[in-house]
Design brief:
Blueprint: E1 2-9, H1 11-16, H2 24-35, E2 40-44, E3 48-54, H3 59-74, E4 83-89, H4 92-107, H5 117-126, E5 148-149, E6 155-156, H6 160-168, H7 174-192, H8 196-200, E7 202-208, H9 214-228, E8 239-243, H10 255-265, E9 271-276, H11 287-298, E10 302-308, H12 313-324, E11 328-334, H13 339-352, E12 356-357, H14 359-373, H15 380-401, H16 407-410, E13 412-413, H17 415-418, H18 432-436, H19 442-460, E14 470-474, H20 480-493, E15 502-506, H21 518-528, E16 533-537, H22 552-566, E17 572-577, H23 579-587, H24 590-593, E18 598-602, H25 607-618, E19 622-623, H26 625-636, H27 640-643, H28 650-671, E20 678-679, H29 681-688
Parallel strand pairs: 7-10, 7-11, 8-9, 9-10, 12-13, 14-17, 14-18, 15-16, 16-17, 19-20
Antiparallel strand pairs: 1-3, 1-4, 2-3, 5-6
Helix pairs in contact: 2-3, 6-7, 6-9, 7-9, 13-15, 14-15, 21-22, 25-26, 25-28, 26-29, 28-29
């Protein structure tokens, strides 16, 4: 009997399952495909799925079969749930018409929020921000993946050799490449000896950070398995993902994964099941996790891939042994990319767009990449692709304004075209003159010059290079970060540092989330900063002083000390924080204090210096002279106990006040339809009347303190 079957999901049901790893409509399609071998998707939407099927069942039997599988999958009766399954008989002509349109209907099937699958893929490829949870939202290869289109509209499956060629073009990933070649080599032997199940029963442990292309790796793995003939894999969705929630003493975190396993039993094709077990890395020996592994071992359609971030080798080995107790496991480690690997990938990506870069453009590109790295939130290839696309777009804008370029110039990105991607990044060369321009920097300038002279003398003497790490001590907003940037540029100009970039972190940025993650994370952050300055604000937060072995800060500090020693000749670590806290950390760790020979103390600014900083910030804008009279009076009236307070944020406070004044002026001009913004006395008065800038000179109550340095 030829039938048209439709599953409709009510609004309450959709809302209840909106966070599922697989949408209910996709589950319905998979179920009907599993029940009816020749089922063709006729239509799908966010709330319904319709297929055409030729089956021996009658209408009631087909409806009951679909409802039974849905109830089994979701673990509940469907009556009254808002899920309705209907069917109608089709004539041969109707069935044939639906069958001819099935391919089109499936390709245009709508997914979450009304986007078609094609639209969702296109948006994923052009998304500006990387998706950390996917560990690789952008493709690392540029040839067509999966099926390739012929001129006559028919599709041809990629051959094993074509897939291996794509694998070999990936950035890094040597272990994954070795795995793929191993599979291609052994597949004919497995098939010949009827030993395919020895392969399909194997699971995998992938160790990879965000932005290392894990999603693409798993898609290639699924395509390769299918192409070798080892196992037929689902064409439309060969990889499905889920993440186990926080470890707890009940099976709830496994419900989503178990639902996928049930779905796999209803499917005629296999899938790679990517399971993020980061939250369970320290609990893989628990009863519930072992039971979950036993369930995985019994299924035959899914190829489980356990995913964790890049961690220490001893943690990798422990995870492998725990998983291998029950499953046949192969471990694949994808280390973070080196700078050379990122550069080669960027070059290939630009070539994909048909562009080459001048030396100045490459400098701008890597200045932006280094800026993206500098806050500790870097997503590898995802970030590289994002910056590439930003630069390509900047090139288009440049071409609009420079239409007289030659053909060769049109295909080459120069430094001028690349300038927009460096907006907000100071790429100018600093020097001693930059230090002189800072308000109240006389003593600091003298101390910096002494330190640089000592370092230069040691270098020129030809003896072993000394440690050149430093500590900057003082209250917030006293210029520690600014001076650290200048020191890096001076050391670069004097030939002491080879790169001279600036990487800024807080102390706890070095700490991982899981046991074994901290040391490789810290080493990677240091590796990025070789030849440059690494500035660590609130460095004392790494040192608890309580002997707690479970504190990741202690592990980070030990790793950091080793890096400071091993790369002492071309790597400067500047630790910053409150004077007392920094002293306590140095006294509590002899290995650290011996490697930080230089100290610069940053005093609080006095009232006149604070006013001078405000004037300096205002000098680039149009200002009413009367505003400065009120500003000087304001700073003169700040109580002394406020200025001496440990919490007072000094220049940071001034900057916050200036930005508030500018915001008041800008808003006023917009409301009055004035294009030119001029800061006035009234704008300043309005700003200081906001709560964080008010204080009582009689009671000498402290004013509010700004946030962020």
């Amino acid at each position: 009997m030829k039938l048209e079957l439709t599953v409709n999901f009510g609004g309450d049901w959709i809302l209840k399952h909106r966070n599922d790893d697989v949408l209910p409509v996709n589950c319905a399609v998979d179920i009907m495909r599993g029940l009816f071998a020749d089922a063709k998707v006729a239509d799908t939407s966010f709330v319904s799925a319709t297929v055409a099927a030729d089956t021996e069942l009658d209408i009631d039997g087909a409806v009951a079969a679909v409802k039974g599988k849905l109830a089994e999958l979701y673990g509940a009766a469907l009556d009254g749930s808002g899920v309705v399954v209907t069917a109608r008989e089709l004539t041969d002509e109707q069935y044939g018409a639906l069958g001819s349109e099935a391919g089109h209907a499936e390709s245009a099937a709508t997914t979450a929020f009304g986007m078609t699958q094609q639209q969702e893929r296109e948006q994923s490829e052009t998304r500006a921000e990387p998706r950390a949870e996917s560990r690789g939202a952008y493709s690392r290869f540029f040839d067509n993946g999966g099926d390739t289109e012929r001129a006559d509209g028919e599709s041809k499956k990629s051959s094993v050799d074509e897939i291996l060629a794509e694998v070999d073009r990936l950035a890094g990933s040597s272990e994954f490449k070795a795995l793929c070649h191993e599979i291609a080599d052994v597949a004919p032997v497995l098939i010949k000896n009827n030993a395919v199940d020895a392969f399909t029963s194997r699971s995998y442990l992938f160790v990879a950070n965000d932005g290392c292309g894990l999603a693409e790796d798993l898609t290639l793995l699924a395509r390769l398995i299918d192409a070798t003939g080892i196992k037929k894999m689902a064409a439309s969705r060969p990889v499905v993902e889920c993440a186990l929630g926080p470890a707890k003493e009940d099976p709830e975190p496994f419900e989503s994964a178990m639902r996928m396993l049930k779905m796999s039993d209803m499917s005629a094709a296999g899938q790679v099941l990517s399971i993020d077990i980061s939250e369970w890395m320290n609990s893989t020996d628990s009863r519930h996790f072992k039971n979950f592994l036993k369930q995985l071992s019994k299924q035959s359609m899914m190829i489980p891939v356990f995913c964790v971030p890049y961690v220490d080798k001893y943690v990798q080995d422990r995870l492998y042994k725990s998983l291998n107790d029950i499953l046949f496991v192969r471990s694949v480690v994808i280390p973070p990319y080196t700078r050379d690997e990122l550069e080669k990938y960027a070059e290939r990506t630009f070539a994909h767009y048909g562009y080459t870069l001048t030396k100045a453009a490459w400098q701008a590109f890597f200045a932006r990449i280094d800026d993206e790295r500098a806050d500790g939130r870097f997503y590898g290839l995802d970030t590289v692709v994002k910056v590439v696309k930003e630069l390509v777009y900047a090139k288009q804008l440049y071409d609009v304004k420079h239409k007289d370029q030659s053909d060769a110039e049109m295909r080459r990105i120069n430094g001028k075209a690349a300038e927009p991607i460096c907006a907000g990044i100071d790429t100018s060369e600093y020097g001693v003159e930059s230090l002189k321009r800072l308000v109240g920097s006389e003593q600091i300038e003298k101390r910096v010059n002494e330190i640089v002279a000592q370092i230069e003398l040691s270098v020129k003497s030809g003896k072993e290079r000394p440690c050149i790490h430093m500590q900057f001590v003082g209250n917030p907003g006293t210029g520690k970060t600014t001076v650290a940037r200048i020191v890096g540029k001076i050391l670069k100009e004097r030939g002491i540092l080879s790169v001279g970039n600036f990487f800024e972190y807080s102390g706890r940025d070095f700490c991982g989330r899981y046991i074994g993650e901290t040391a490789p994370k810290t080493s990677g952050m240091c590796r990025d900063a070789y030849g440059s300055v690494m500035f660590i604000d609130e460095a004392y937060s790494l040192y608890r002083g309580d002997g707690n072995d479970r504190d990741f800060g202690r592990e980070a500090l030990d790793t950091l000390i080793a890096e400071m020693e091993n790369h002492r000749s071309d790597f400067v670590v500047i630790m910053a924080g409150y004077t007392d806290d920094m002293k306590k950390m140095m006294e509590g760790n002899a290995g650290l204090s011996s490697r930080v020979p230089y100290t610069i103390e940053f005093p609080n600014f006095d009232k006149k210096q604070l006013f001078d900083i405000f004037k300096s910030m205002s000098s680039r804008y149009d200002c009413d002279a009367e505003m400065f009279v009120d500003a000087q009076n304001y700073f003169d009236e700040i109580p002394d106990d406020v200025l001496s307070s440990k919490e007072f944020s000094n220049a940071r406070f001034v900057r916050n006040l200036f930005e508030r004044t500018w915001a008041k002026a800008s808003m006023r001009c917009q409301l009055n339809g004035v294009s030119k913004v001029v800061m006035t006395k009234n704008d300043f008065t309005s700003a200081i009347n906001d709560g964080e800038f008010k204080f009582d000179t009689k009671k000498k109550n402290r004013i509010g303190f700004g946030v962020g340095e």
